[in-house]
Design goal:
Elements (H helix, E strand, L loop, with lengths): L8 H10 L2 E4 L1 H5 L6 H19 L4 E4 L3 H4 L3 H6 L22 E4 L8 H4 L1 H5 L3 E6 L3 H4 L6 H17 L2 E4 L2 H14 L10 E3 L23 E4 L8 H13 L6 E4 L7 H12 L4 E4 L4 H9 L3 E4 L8 H8 L4 E4 L2 H7 L4 E3 L4 H14 L15 H13 L5 H11 L15 H18 L2 H9 L4 H35 L6 H30 L3 H14 L1
Parallel strand pairs: 1-2, 1-3, 3-4, 4-5, 5-6, 7-8, 7-10, 8-9, 10-11, 11-12
Helix pairs in contact: 3-17, 11-16, 19-21, 19-22, 20-21, 21-22
InterPro entries: Glyco_trans_1
GO molecular function, one term: glycosyltransferase activity
Organism: Acidimicrobium ferrooxidans (strain DSM 10331 / JCM 15462 / NBRC 103882 / ICP)
């Protein structure tokens, strides 16, 4: 197989033109009942992309590439006939990857480490692109769960290191992504053509005009979204409380479940309801109930401190519902001249606007936002053009090969380029996994008491493999110590962190397989032998 880096530009373009687009929906595959904004985008845009690809003679395969989502790693997935297209309702067929494919990570698959799983094909020229919904966990980390902040930070390292291109859902998200990648991977300059913009759509939520209640001036203002810090419900409640205390009577309906760091918001809502305020909380509304509520409202309210696209507001605008929005970049980008804007922390401005709405009502201005007429098929066609034009970045692959090539001492490259603090932490975690699972000495003790020759040989083989894993961990620790002495703080770079993670992640996967294998083999030992082994196993932990 000829290396992609040696092919001419013309031949690369030809390969890209006939290669497939693999539309990754690993998170939906794992939790198909999810109906968040991101999952709705993945379903709607994915369905449209399959149709538009077929019209253009392009093969768009909807697949799940995540190890946690499907059980085996992607290498196993590529070899077995797994049906992977169920989430989007398109024909199911086995998935076999090729270096001519383009894998497009559209789902919130940040936890799956797809770049490592796809490494063999990526190094041979398979292109990798991602749909960037937002960078809120990093730019507004106080609004997110701590675990998500850490995981999303690692994901952005992956994107900056491996992705051939990024498709952002709005211009403001694209700008934030460029800025974040410039800080995360300063050694790689992602050119403007590698961070593109493709607006989404709200057209699938268009309701028949008959469902829009004509006289909605007595209806509520509706806020939609999970109760969590980013949605800024504190300012929403402050504004409405000030309005009610001043004698106002505009009702508020909140549609959204209780999320993270929001118990105090849920308690406050319940107190206001008990106090007789015109407030309703629908924590588990069906889609039908949600749309009945929105279509009968005076306006949709979204005071988020940050959004990537704000799909509910787009869907409401598609149906002619007036909007009250926080004055943030993405809202200005999509709805400038259409929505009424309030500073995200300005509760007094919200209270004043509510008083105005009660007196004179709220109507749509004559300005017509362009996003209202955009369909999912418009977005799919634009996305196809972006992906078809996306070049394979040969330079970054060459850099990766250089940095991961074995040294003269035979140690793998990442062991010579790691960041000491992170690796020390990860090695300690790996050792806990080894000691907590099955050590080589325990395996040999077990094997010595097993009468079945085949089982005894198998356990001895596993013991030897576990011993090799422990030696590799020791080598990695030694390499870290030597690197620390020789390079010190010079090794505190982002690339080293990612390489260390890649090395240990592969090691952890191998360890898990070894432990599972020995558990399976021990399970085959006859009952009398298991009773004989029980005291020894208890003694050794």
């Amino acid at each position: 197989m000829q290396s992609p880096s040696r092919r001419s530009n013309a031949s690369q373009g030809s390969a890209q033109a006939r290669g497939r687009i693999i539309w990754d929906c690993s998170y939906i595959d794992r939790e198909p009942w999810r109906a968040t904004g991101i999952q709705r985008v993945v379903r709607e845009l994915g369905e449209a992309l399959v149709v538009e690809g077929r019209r253009r003679g392009r093969d768009v395969v909807v697949g799940s590439l995540g190890g946690e989502a499907v059980g085996p790693t992607v290498w196993e997935l590529a070899r077995i006939p797994r049906p992977q297209d169920k989430p989007l309702g398109v024909p199911r067929r086995p998935l076999e990857l090729s270096r001519d494919d383009l894998v497009f990570v559209a789902d919130s698959s940040w936890h799956l480490g797809l770049s490592y799983r796809l490494a063999p094909w990526w190094l041979e020229g398979m292109r990798l692109a991602v749909l960037q919904h937002d960078v809120v966990p990093l730019t507004h980390s106080w609004t997110a769960d701590e675990g998500l902040v850490r995981q999303f930070g690692l994901w952005m390292l992956e994107v900056g290191t491996f992705a051939d291109g990024v498709v952002a859902v709005s211009r403001s998200t694209a700008e934030a992504t460029r800025a974040m990648l410039a800080r995360t991977v300063p050694w790689r300059e992602l050119a403007a053509e590698r961070v593109r913009v493709c607006w989404l759509s709200g057209m699938h939520a268009r309701q028949p005009s008959a469902q829009r209640i004509v006289d909605v001036q007595s209806g509520p203002v509706v806020a939609v979204g999970t109760l969590e810090p980013r949605k800024n419900y504190t300012t929403v409640l402050d504004g409405f409380e000030a309005h009610w205390q001043a004698g106002g009577s505009v009702p508020l309906v909140i549609v959204g479940r209780l999320g993270w760091r929001a118990n105090h918001i849920g308690a406050r809502i319940e107190e206001l309801v008990q106090a007789g305020r015109p407030l309703t909380w629908l924590a588990d509304a069906s889609d039908e109930k949600l749309w009945r509520t929105i279509m009968g409202s005076r306006a949709l309210l979204s005071l988020s401190v940050e959004e990537g696209f704000d799909l509910p507001s787009v869907e409401a605008a598609v149906n002619g519902v007036p909007l009250i929005l926080s004055d943030i970049p993405v809202h200005r980008e999509l709805f400038d001249g259409y929505a009424r804007f309030v500073g995200p922390g300005d509760a007094s401005a919200l209270a004043a606007l509510l008083g105005e709405i009660q007196e004179v009502g709220i109507t749509n201005p004559p300005t017509h936002p362009l996003i209202v007429d955009r369909t999912w098929h418009d977005g799919a066609r634009e996305l196809l053009e972006i992906l078809d034009a996306l070049p394979m970045d040969a330079a970054i692959r060459a850099r990766w090969r250089e940095r991961t090539a074995p040294g003269a001492d035979g140690h793998p490259g990442p062991a010579r380029h790691v960041t000491p603090p992170l690796v020390t932490q990860l090695v300690a975690r790996a050792r806990v996994l080894v000691r907590g699972g099955l050590t080589g000495s325990l395996a040999r003790a077990v094997a010595a008491q097993v009468r079945a020759p085949a089982t005894r040989r198998a356990v001895f083989e596993v013991a030897q493999r576990v011993d090799r894993l422990e030696r590799l961990l020791g080598d990695l620790e030694s390499a870290v110590r030597e690197s620390t002495k020789a390079q010190g703080r010079l090794l505190e770079d982002t690339y080293g962190r990612l390489e260390a993670l890649a090395s240990l992640e592969a090691l952890s996967e191998q360890l898990v397989r070894e432990v599972a294998d020995v558990k399976h083999r021990l399970g085959a030992v006859e009952a009398p032998e298991r009773r004989t082994l029980a005291p020894e196993l208890r003694e050794r932990g």
